[in-house]
Amino acid sequence: MSSRGRPVATSPAQIEAAAFRLFAERGFEAVTMSEIAAEVGVGRRTLFRYFESKNDIPWGQFDQTLEHFRAILRELPQDRPVHEVVQQGVLAFNEFDPAAEPPHRERMRLILETPTLQAHSVLRYAEWRSVIAEYVAERLDLRPDDLLPRTAGGVALTLAISAYEAWLEDPAADLADLLTATMSALRSYLAD
Predict the structure, then answer these.
(1) Hey, what domains does the chain have and what are their CATH numbers?
(2) Alpha-carbon distance 121 to 127, whole Å?
(3) Is residue 26 within 8 Å of residue 110, measured between CB atoms?
(4) Per-residue pLDDT, 191
(5) In whole angstroms, what is the distance from residue 71 CA to residue 87 CA?
(6) 44-89 tens-digit pLDDT
(7) pLDDT value at position 4?
(8) By the number of CB atoms within 10 A of the CB, which of 17, 49, 101, 108 ranks highest?
(9) What is the per-residue burial (b if ≥16 Cβ within 10 Å, else e) of 25-39?
(10) pLDDT averaged over the chain?
């Protein structure tokens, strides 16, 4: 049985690798989608089938990543307090293959330190927060847009970004340790 259509000419990983090479050489702003397509050896239309915009490329396959995040939260022991599951979920979500291309540190530096990407990041951050809000709402029999689930999502995101900023400033720092420290420090502060 033969498949219909053209064979796959590239993959999201190949596009990301090529784009990050170009970003490193010339800066994010100076690189166009046409140049990324040429680097990969595909047409612009093909490239847009994988990523809606250049701003989406640093985020990778973010929709799939969020589905993985939801699965992590569901798979953790549900007899634990909600805040512990959220903390463990955030830690597990932020485990990355050290051999990944592009390296996770490079990806996050681009996302957090490129002004053009900041506006686009707001959209992605809202999606990330909603994963936690949905989980907290389900556990506490609330709606995701109720105040407590929304606050939990917002606080978790802020703590994660703080940890990432510290990680980017210190090449020797361990991301998991920083995530644990930020989340634990706030819980301790609030308990006092």
Answers:
(1) 12-53 (1.10.10.60), 61-191 (1.10.357.10)
(2) 10
(3) no
(4) 59
(5) 14
(6) 999 999 999 999 999 999 999 999 999 999 999 999 999 999 999 9
(7) 55
(8) 108
(9) eeebeebeeebbbeb
(10) 92
Q: What is the 3-state secondary structure (H, E, C) of the chain?
A: CCCCCCCCCCCHHHHHHHHHHHHHHHCCCCCCHHHHHHHHCCCHHHHHHHCCCHHHHHHCCHHHHHHHHHHHHHHCCCCCCHHHHHHHHHHHHCCCCCCCCCCHHHHHHHHHHCHHHHHHHHHHHHHHHHHHHHHHHHHHCCCCCCHHHHHHHHHHHHHHHHHHHHHHHCCCCCHHHHHHHHHHHHHHHHHC
d(CA 89, CA 68): 10
Distance CA 66, CA 125 (A): 11
Mean pLDDT of 130-148: 97
Check: CB of residue 164 under 8 Å from CB of residue 90. Answer: no
Tell me what pLDDT residue 187 has. Answer: 74
The whole-number pLDDT of residue 101 equals 87
Predicted local confidence at residue 7, as pLDDT: 47
Residue 78 corresponds to which amino acid?
Answer: Q
Among the listed ranges 6-20, 79-93, 133-147, which one has the minimum average pLDDT value? 6-20
